[in-house]
Amino acid sequence: MEEPRQRGKVLLLMRHAKSSWADSTLADFERPLNGRGKQDAPRMGELLRKRELLPDLIITSEARRARDTTTRVVEASGYEGEVRSTRELYEAEPEDFLEVLHAVPDSCARVMLVAHNPGLELFLELLTGIAEALPTGALAAIQLPVTSWKELHEGVRGKLLGLWSPKTLL
């Protein structure tokens, strides 16, 4: 007899770590992480590993601070899966996140998006009905009642499984 399959997907939403404003000549898209961001991102990667939340797929914004965050999270967590980079997650609105997720293969049970505010907070609220702040480096885990990423839409309500920020890990 087969065990019943757990229904649902898990979505991890991560805001990029703290970025630097030191070089005013850089475009927003090109801003790197600052010192605190470089320390915080690996700590969030360790959290993913320790809590057994490693995703099947990571999709990151192409903005430098998001890519740098993702690289440090991957290195600290031991994640060995695929990392996709897309411009669609830069300045994304909730409908942009949905569009990106609709292209995810259903073989991926857990997906992590690394992106930016305010869109990330709006997407978290849309999916959970809960307005939560996502400070830089924060990570939210949401259980979604869908078996296919294509089923995800504005009316779907997920359950917030956890919300962590670098400051809560101190």
Textual characterization of the structure:
The chain is of the alpha/beta class. The protein has a single domain (9-169), classed as 3-Layer(aba) Sandwich (Rossmann fold), CATH 3.40.50. Helix content is 29%, strand content 21%. The chain is built from four helices and six strands. The chain has helices at residues 35-50, 64-77, 94-102, 119-128, and strands at residues 9-15, 57-61, 82-86, 110-115, 139-144, 159-164. It has a six-stranded mixed β-sheet with strand order 3-2-4-1-5-6, sandwiched between helices. Strand 2, helix 2 (64-77) and strand 3 form a beta-alpha-beta unit. The N and C termini lie far apart (46 Å).
List its traits.
Rossmann fold, 29% helix, 4 helices, 170 residues, alpha/beta, six-stranded mixed sheet, disordered N terminus
Summarize the structure.
The protein is of the alpha/beta class. The chain is 29% helix and 21% strand.
Gross morphology is globular
**What Rg is obtained from the alpha carbons, in whole angstroms?**
15 Å
CATH architecture: 3-Layer(aba) Sandwich
The CATH superfamily is identified as Phosphoglycerate mutase-like
Q: Could you estimate the helical fraction of the residues in percent?
A: 25-40%
Domain count: the total is 1
Which CATH top level class fits? Answer: Alpha Beta
- Could you tell me the number of beta strands? 6
CATH topology, by name, is Rossmann fold
- Low-confidence region ranges: 1-5
- Class derived from helix and strand content: alpha/beta
The helix count comes to 4
Element order: H for helix, E for strand: EHEHEHEHEE
Give the strand order of the largest sheet, numbering strands 1, 2, ... along the chain. 3-2-4-1-5-6
